[in-house]
Amino acid sequence: MRHFLLTTLALLFSGLAAFAQEAGREPAPSETEAAAAAEDAAETAAAPAEEEEHENIYDPLYGAPKPLAAAFRAFGRDANRWAYTQHLVVYNSKGKVQDEQVVRFDPSQHYDVQWTMLTKNGQPATEAQIKKHRRQMEKRTKNRRTLGELLQLKQATLASETETDFVYEVPFAPDKDIKFPPEKFQIFITVDRATQTLRALDVKLRESLRVVGVVKVKTGEARITFAPVVAPHGPAITSVAVAGSGSVLFVPLSSRTEAKRTEFERVTPYDDRFTVKPGPLKMIDF
């Protein structure tokens, strides 16, 4: 069950980084444009981005509400430039630590060594554990889908708003490689009203779901939070949390996984050494 929830989040998260990264390639808005955007936020919260003259059908955020599109662009400008240390903890159904690891991610390194496990359950990671973790990360990122393929951003609607935030509900698009019905999930994206930057992405299971004959997921939720880490650059993902409960052969199970990221450093990604870039449609795929 935990694997099912983590897989769902992994697809969303990996797609988020790739999709926003490409969306963020556009030039940053000027201070005047940013101020005007914040001033007009209340009136344009639900307005589609295609109303702006500079938008075109090749833009991966074409048709998305303006504040949501602006938030993805701000995140995307630096999405692939952050090196960080991640502390991940997995808790079992009794709330006890089942697994704990600290890893360092550095996108400026070659793909094979971008992930380095530092500790495993409080002990320095062995060479075998480091290599195994790198193989796992390589396998997880292979053939992943972009956010553009997973989320129907053009159909995002304003679910609620406060003095500080806009919250958009985004439909989950069907995908032949994801073995669950998209209508079972709700996805909410929170945007800071004043700065038009991402604050959180929440995935919630609407109702119980039977994955296979003997596995039933009763509750499930995931949350990705964003925050500024190095001024004056856009926000980065600072924490990821996944929790769920269900049963296997009628035996109740529950699990919680939390990951926190610290020690951010802005680096030049390894990809930047390649000067040949794909066409606009290819850019939002991996």
Q: Which helices and strands appear, and what pairs or packs with what?
A:
Blueprint: H1 2-23, H2 31-39, H3 41-44, H4 66-76, E1 82-91, E2 97-105, E3 115-120, E4 123-124, H5 127-141, H6 147-150, E5 157-161, E6 165-169, E7 185-192, E8 198-205, E9 209-212, E10 215-228, E11 235-248, E12 251-266
Antiparallel strand pairs: 1-2, 1-12, 2-3, 3-4, 5-6, 6-7, 7-8, 8-10, 9-10, 10-11, 11-12
What would you note in describing this structure?
Helices cover 23% and strands 35% of the residues. It contains 6 helices and 12 strands. Strands 1, 2, 3, 4, 5, 6, 7, 8, 9, 10, 11 and 12 form a 12-stranded antiparallel β-sheet that branches. A hairpin with a 2-residue loop joins strand 11 and strand 12 (251-266). The relative contact order is 0.19. The model is unreliable at 11-15, 26-35 and 276-286 (pLDDT under 50).
| Largest beta-sheet details | 12 strands, antiparallel
Extended strand count? 12
Q: Low-confidence parts lasting 5 or more residues at pLDDT below 50? A: 11-15, 26-35, 276-286
Mean pLDDT: 77
* Radius of gyration from the alpha-carbon trace, in angstroms: 19 Å
Helicity, as a percent range: 10-25%
Distance between the termini: 27 Å
Structural class: alpha+beta
Order of helices and strands: HHHHEEEEHHEEEEEEEE
Total number of distinct structural domains: 1
